[in-house]
Amino acid sequence: xxxNTSFQQVVIIGYxxxxxxxLQYVYDRKEEYGYELAFIxxxxxxxxxxxxxxxxxxxxxxRITDKRKLAAQLDKLTKETLIISASNxxxxxxxxxxxxxxxxxxxxxxxxxxxxxxxxxxWVIFMGEKxxxxxxxxxxxxxxxxxxxxxxxxxxxxxxxxxxxxxxLMELAGEAFRESFADIMARRVQxxxxxxxxxxxxxxxxEVPSDGFFDLTDxxxxxxxxxxxxxxxxxxxxxxxxxxxxxxxxxxxxYRKITADKxxxxxxxxxxxxxxxxxxxxxxMVLKLKYASIxx
Length: 296
Fold this sequence. Notes:
It is built from 9 helices and 11 strands. It is an alpha/beta fold. The longest helix is centred in the middle third of the chain and has 24 residues, at about 160-185.
C-alpha cells in the first residue's frame, strides 16, 4: 500500500467521457494506493461507458437516481473517503461536505470563478469569449465555490460549436486529473482561493441564451454565435431556437456557414427557396438557415 495517501476509499460519481476516463485511471492506480473503489451513477447517460468499465473490472456499481437516497447513501461513509465528482450535477449536502472523513473534488467545464453553474460551454460561446477551459476544485457548501486544484485553458474559435468545445474540454479535464491525482491523494495540493464576487452570475439549467429567440434584424454574427452556443449535436440539451419569418414564428432546424457563391447558386436554382433563409455573414460568407413553422 502506498503510504502517500490516507484515503481508504474512493467513490466516483458522474457520467460521460470524463467520468469513464477518471474511473479507469483510478482503477488502474488502485493496487498502488490500496484504496477501495466504488462507482455511483446518479444520472443515466444514453452513451455512458461507466457501467461496462465497472463490470469488466469488477468495480462496485450502484445506480441511485433519487437525490435523497444518494445523499443518505453518502452520509453512511465512515472511512477516509475521496469523492470524485466528474460531469455530475448532484449538489452535495452541506452536512456531507462538513464530514471530517470526506473530501470531495469536482470537475467544472469553465475557468472558475467565471461561468459557475450549468452549461458553461454554451455561455462562453454565446458571450463571445476567446478563451475558456476547465477547473478541478474542492467542493464546499456553495456551488462551484471551492478552492482551485488545477486549471487548463483552450481557445474558442470563430466557428466552434458547443459540442466541439465540450469535447476539447473533456480532453483537458482528463489530462488535468491525471496530472494532479498524486498530489490530491497525498493531500499536498497547493489549492488557491477563487476570489469571486459575492454577487457573481450563476448559470441555471433552465436558462437559454437570448431566451431561445432571435430577430432577423440582429447581426448575422450574433445569430450564428447563438446557434453555435446551443448546438450539442445529437444531445438535445436546449430547445430549437426561434425567430419570426413573414409574420409567423418558426424554429431553426439546421444552420450552415457557406460561401456566398454557393448560396447564390442555390438561390438561383430555386431548389431550396422553401424553408430556407440566407443571411450575409462577413466577407464572401453566408449563414444558411433551415426553418419550419411551429405547430401549436
